[in-house]
Write a structure and sequence with these properties.
2 domains, three-stranded parallel sheet, 11 strands, D-Maltodextrin-Binding Protein, domain 2, Iontro_rcpt_C, ligand-gated monoatomic ion channel activity, globular, alpha/beta, Solute-binding_3/MltF_N, five-stranded mixed sheet
Amino acid sequence: MSVVRTHRTRLAALGSVLIAGSLAVTGCSSSSSTSSSTSSSSGSSSGSITSPTAVPSLAAQLPAAVKSSGKLVVGVDASYAPNEFKDDSGHIQGMDVDLAGAIAAKLGLKADVRDSQFTAIIPGIQSNKFQLGMSSFTDSKDREATVDMVTYFTAGTSMAVKKGNPNKISATDLCGKKVAVQTGTTQADEIKNTLNPACQKAGKPTIPNDGDKFDLQTDVTNALVAGRDDAMLADSPVVDYAIKISGQLAKIGDTTDTAPYGAVVAKGSPLTPAIHGAIQSLIDDGTYAKILQKWGVQAGAITKSVVNGAVS
């Protein structure tokens, strides 16, 4: 994820077809939804992050039902390493998971992080199944029409191919190529709404089936590694991590269409200003930077969080 998730971002059509991307590499084949409680210091990167102290003025902003529960229920699609994924024991971890734990701590709560299909998270926010969505959602005007988005990171779209680019894929022309994407992401939308119309206008074959779509990002990556697809598109930190972990992929082209990620909260909820304050507090006290450094994604750091700051 209209998505990554993925964005989860918007791609631009530049002449022929300009894109970039790659996704996560761990092997997961089902889309079952499981539940997992986590703290702010989960993860497979170096060191743990000290849980921040609660800020009474922020905790005072919480809706009574949330405060009395003592927890913040967070929806993630745990197939998008290094942002949100499962370790070998099935524990949910990643940048977004650590940030969710730290946000909850700032509010005097514990994070209850639950795995979900990406496309079910925003409906889950609207139905109060989740109170917060932290799953690499690109902040967009479309999303802001139905939920609040509190910015906390920036990412672009990248493209990955097999190492050595055996199929001679062009980063500027995907017409006629098999491209793997995650269902419900902006990358999937862009193939259908921007890239394939550009191919048709140029008199070229389109990307088959408007992209080879998978419910899980891990399955997207596995399809490329197995050679079933020619390329994959995903958010830049996900592509970088997939390349590092798999050892079988390479990035081609530039990272495009940088845009903010937004933490998802119910539209007009009194929880929105509390989440916004918690994120800004984490940025100001240095906890945020430590979490990003832990996962090697500090290039996407922001200095100021805003509510509903999408430009498109």
